Amino acid sequence: MKNNKKYLMTILLLFTLSLIGITVIRPVQGNPGPDLVNRGTTWDGFYPNKAVPWGTNISLFCDVLNQGDAASGAFSVSFYASLDTTITGGDYEIVKVPVSSIAAGVWANVYWFGPFPVSIPNDTYYVGWIIDVDFEVAEDNEGNNIAYETVSQLSIVIEAELYNRGGPNGGFQYSGYTPTEVMPSVTLFSIWCDIINVGLKPSGPFNVSFVASYNPTISGADYEFARVTVPSINNGSYADVSWTGIFPFIPFSSFFVGWVIDVNDDVPEGSEYDDSGRAEYAPLVVSNKSDLVDRGSSYSGMSSPNVYPLTAFTVWADIENIGLKSSESCNISFYASTDTNITTLDTYLGSDTLSVLTNGSFGYVEWSGTFPNITLGTYYIGWLIDVKDDVDEGNENNNKAYISSILTVGPASKSGIPGYDPLVIIGVISIASVIYILNKRKKK
């Protein structure tokens, strides 16, 4: 009986001690406060792995995990360039990034993007970081706050660095294109941009590829429609790069327009990232339409360079469809204008109907009638094609034309004193001479 009692007392004592261990020892084994650590190599890194001081834009990132039992409060992470894997505050600081408080059991992404500092010498470095570099967080373990990138090292070099002026998705004030609707093999197209060398050496010659892209991410895999060679850009300078030409064949669609800088990788650069630029989205529409234009001065004319109001007059022209599909029938209106900018506000003469034109064909139009009673003087005779906008054209801005020679409305100008007929002048002089002779005879 005594042995059983003793056995029961032993069991009771052991059970009591285990409860004490659960109640007292367990909290001591955990992290009652915050504890900040690097989340792991899967979530940290940098790019590019080569940089020009104060030229190359570099990205640095890591994840910081709070494996403690309390929120951390705000703190900072400093990224460093180090000659070895022992990261300390004595290494070259690249940047210090502030971080908001991280709750217990939660992680936060720490990211920075910007130009690499000019104060760091040329060499090859490990990139590391110190979490809570200013000891703003009271942690039980301050020895697990340092990490470094184990996969690659960063080379600091003296090279050129080419960027789109204003950034890959900015600088719209330095770039553009016209028109915003084109027909392949038909439309004259212009595009321009500025490229800046923020590196430490001249670039040497390189090529810029102008492309049309289905999305705003511009790359060499997009549809190239032009390529321009740039001789060289000195460090700290920029160049205006432009191209004008007939837009080539690419699919009919809507596109973003951009350019790839140094598309053939001819220039040794600190970074080959961000070697692109994009114009402000319009978009560019590549269309399958007709396009009516005047055929040329050899195919237009007028019945006379001189006409009186309310007398017969004729003007004619050839209209050509340079587009990709047939045009509808439309109206061609003729005008007399005091300048070469022919508009519907000028003096209307008359019109003719242009028949349907297949692409690549032309048609003859003319107006014959009584010239209107307008102020005497000199005029340009011109015409507006598809004046009522009956035809859906790829380019609505090339529908004007005029005859370069001037039409005189009123008496034709003769040689001699401007505005006077030589015969009249001779007659007046003759009469004056006779009167003079008669007067002399009377005096005798």
Question: Topology, please?
Answer:
Elements: H1 2-29, E1 36-38, E2 45-47, E3 50-51, E4 57-66, E5 75-82, E6 92-99, E7 107-115, E8 124-131, E9 146-148, E10 154-156, E11 162-164, E12 176-178, E13 181-182, E14 188-197, E15 206-213, E16 223-230, E17 238-246, E18 253-261, E19 276-278, E20 284-286, E21 292-294, E22 301-302, E23 306-307, E24 312-321, E25 330-337, E26 347-354, E27 362-370, E28 377-385, E29 400-402, E30 407-409, H2 422-443
Helix count, DSSP H or I runs of 4 or more residues = 2
CATH level-four homologous superfamily name of the largest domain = Immunoglobulins
Largest sheet: 6 strands, mixed
* Rg (CA only): 42 Å
The secondary structure category is mainly beta
Structural account:
InterPro entries: CARDB (IPR011635), Ig-like_fold (IPR013783). Helix content is 11%, strand content 39%. The protein folds into 4 domains: 36-156, Immunoglobulins (Immunoglobulin-like, Sandwich); 162-286, Immunoglobulins (Immunoglobulin-like); 292-409, Immunoglobulin-like (Sandwich); 420-444. Strands 3, 5, 6, 8, 9 and 10 form a 6-stranded mixed sheet that branches. The protein has helices spanning 2-29, 422-443; strands at residues 36-38, 45-47, 50-51, 57-66, 75-82, 92-99, 107-115, 124-131, 146-148, 154-156, 162-164, 176-178, 181-182, 188-197, 206-213, 223-230, 238-246, 253-261, 276-278, 284-286, 292-294, 301-302, 306-307, 312-321, 330-337, 347-354, 362-370, 377-385, 400-402, 407-409. It is mostly beta strands and 444 residues long.
